[in-house]
From TrEMBL:
UniProt name for this protein: Acyl dehydratase
Entry-linked InterPro entries: HotDog_dom_sf, MaoC-like_dom, MCH/BMMD
Domain of life of the organism encoding this protein: Bacteria
Lineage: Bacteria, Pseudomonadati, Pseudomonadota, Alphaproteobacteria, Caulobacterales
Residue ranges constituting the MaoC-like domain according to the UniProt record: 31-138
Species of provenance: Caulobacter ginsengisoli
Length: 156
C-alpha cells in the first residue's frame, strides 16, 4: 500500500535510497539527562526490580553514588528512530536485524548521555541492502558509556 501524499510534503529530511548512504554518515541522537522518570519508565517496561537500579540507599551502601541505569536502558537511547536516519530512508526500512552492545561505564541519575550512530558498512544484495552502524554513548565528561552495533535491512 503506498504512503499517503501528505507523507512526502511533511518529510523531515530529503529521502535517501540505499545507494545514497555512505560509510561515515553520522546520526547524532538527542541527549538525555537521566532522572527518576527514566528509571521508573524503564522499570515499568522491563519489569526489572533489582534494587541496584531503583534503591538509592542500597546503591550507596555498595559504594555507588545512586542507582545504576540498566544497560538495556542505555542501549535504548541509541534507537535509530530518535534521530533522522529512519526519516531519510522512509519506507525502505524493513527492520533491525541485529544489535550488539558492550556497557563500558556505569550511568547514574543526573548523568547526561549523548548517543550517536555512524554507518560503518553497506552491503548491497539483490533486492535488499544491509546497513551496519556503530552505536556509541558518551557521558557529559566525554567518557564512553556504551559501544555497539546496529544492523538494518533496507529494500532497494
Amino acid at each position: 500500500m503506498p504512503l499517503p501524499p501528505v507523507y512526502e510534503t511533511h518529510r523531515l529530511v530529503p529521502a535517501k535510497g540505499f545507494d545514497d548512504l555512505k560509510v561515515g554518515d553520522r546520526y547524532p541522537l538527542p541527549s538525555r539527562t537521566l532522572g527518576d522518570g527514566n528509571f521508573a519508565a524503564f522499570q515499568a517496561v522491563s519489569l526489572d526490580n533489582h534494587p541496584i537500579h531503583y534503591d538509592a540507599e542500597y546503591c550507596q551502601a555498595l559504594g555507588h553514588p545512586g542507582p545504576l541505569a540498566h544497560g538495556l536502558q542505555v542501549l535504548c537511547f541509541t534507537a535509530a528512530g530518535a534521530g533522522l536516519f529512519p526519516h531519510e530512508i522512509g519506507d525502505a526500512l524493513l527492520g533491525m536485524i541485529e544489535v550488539r552492545a558492550r556497557i563500558l561505564k556505569s550511568a547514574y541519575p543526573g548523568d547526561t548521555l549523548y548517543p550517536a550512530l555512524e554507518i560503518t558498512e553497506l552491503k548491497r544484495q539483490r533486492t535488499t541492502g544491509v546497513v551496519t552502524m556503530a552505536a556509541s554513548v558518551i557521558n557529559q565528561r566525554g567518557e564512553a558509556v556504551l559501544e555497539g552495533e546496529h544492523v538494518y535491512l533496507l529494500k532497494l
